[in-house]
Queue: 2 jobs
Job 1
Amino acid sequence: MTGTALLALMAAGSALGAHLLTRARWTWRTPRTAIALWQALGLAWGLASIGTLLSFGLAPYGQGVVVGVARFFAAPSVLSSFQLVAVAAGLTLALLLVGMLMVAIGTVVRARRRHRALLALVAHGDPEVPGTLVLDHPVAAAYCVPGVRSQVVVSAGTLELLGPYELAAVLAHERAHARERHDLVLLPFTSLRRIFPQARIVSRTLDAVELLIEMAADDRARRHRPAKELATALLRFAAAGAAPTPAGTLGVVGADETSPILVRVRRLLAPAPLPRPMRGAMLAGATAVAVLPLILYAIPA
Amino acid sequence: MKGLGELERTVMEVLWHRQHGGTAREVGRALADERDLAHTTVMTVLDRLAKKGFLVREREGRAWRYRPIATKEAYVAELMLGALSMTGDRDAALTHFARSVSGDEVDLLRRVLDEVEGTSPG
């Protein structure tokens, strides 16, 4: 039962790791590495959970998960009904995770197509902000429609609200999102949230990854612009957009120092990046976490 | 000569400004001052916009009369809802600069903004 036990341990371990990582603050000192760690944990959790069920069910073949699945489709009659249930559950989970990711991709592609079509009709260029589309609306908004050809959009309210330097900082931030394809980073996590809408660990994970992505974009933006411009833009922008808490988002945002906006402002003004060796160690750890379940797939149960 | 996208936009503007929509001939006439468009070009653009779901059409004699399905303001509002992530869906369709915040948080952020701006005036 070594393989099965190790996979189960791995699944539980990655869930525990995710739990700890949602509370961690050191991740803010190296957002990109932390994003990699999150991706590794997510992958490890999925692979290990599926693997635990399959490994348990396919134990009679004695050849691990990968060979076991092939053998199973050739001669399923070897298994007991209990083992058959485990195999069915494992395959269902695999299909669910992959299928829902496909659904999420489809939804996003459709939403973006609609968004781009509407932008083409109602948004316009502005000589003040070349390469950016402007929406005539008094509320401040700035965002990016990601894709192979990404499009940065700001509202007239944003142009009104921000000075030229702050605006440049905001646009640099948005272009960083587009360039690093942060939308692709988010996709699997939003998909996981659709599968488990009630699980607090999943929504907290999504919050954490979203914040890290913003920090990564902030970091890239401040390579080209002074950090203070971005910080004041962020404060002015968020303070202007006073809105009732949008439906469907979580009430995790408090009016205290844990406010994501404030956290971003503080680290922009007083950056404390992790030393390179520590980041390297984290990346190595992340790689190990992602690869380990695959190795366990080969171990006979 | 501008691209097809630019034409679609111009045609929509014409229709948004007309009370009862328009036929291809009427749209062409409305645009005659700005540019000289072939009648078939206007028909193609109207047809494309109808296929994309921005216009509905109904028979009027031998021609089609086209009307916008929604106002320009409604489309801007729809885009802004997505932009402010107020659609209730947390998908990864767009990436934002900052999410909307609650009233209490606004007070706090205003205070911090004053602090930050006070540290080095100018």
Job 2
Amino acid sequence: MDSLQTGSLTGAQKEELMDQLKQQIALANAQELLMKITEKCFKKCITKPGTSLDSSEQKCIAMCMDRYMDSWNIVSRVYGNRIQRERQRM
Amino acid sequence: MSDRFSSDDSSFPLDSGKDGDRELQELLMVEKQKAQFNAQIHEFNDFCWEKCVDKPGSKIDSKTETCISNCVERFIDVSLLVTNRFAQLLQKSPM
């Protein structure tokens, strides 16, 4: 990776850089989540791949997707709380 | 350059010029920490989903929620335990 010459950036340029960075991180995050959901829910819902996705499989995928995101939120909350607790102990 | 960041920052080369640019560096550090936090959640969720969720239902029941919560907490416990024990082993017999 080339090193960035940031000493000459104006305030507006810095803001733009940070905005772009945040957008790219958000995109990468969404892609990671989609990839995980596809993989995990395929595994749970498609036990025998047929010639098409039947309606029960589609329902299972939709439900699995919602639950995976619920689970993500639980993990996020528990992990965030734990980090705060560990910080207080230090 | 490396002294401006914590030791594991070789993946993020940044030459801030002569004056230095604390503000931008701090903003980048915050974003980096957020990204690491998110990456860790993905990893925990991947792992604990396999352990705790059998058949995804119409909602996550309280038993599953407790399982996920315990899974994350115990995973961190194990990680800390292994790290501490490894450090102790290193002290006793340096490699």
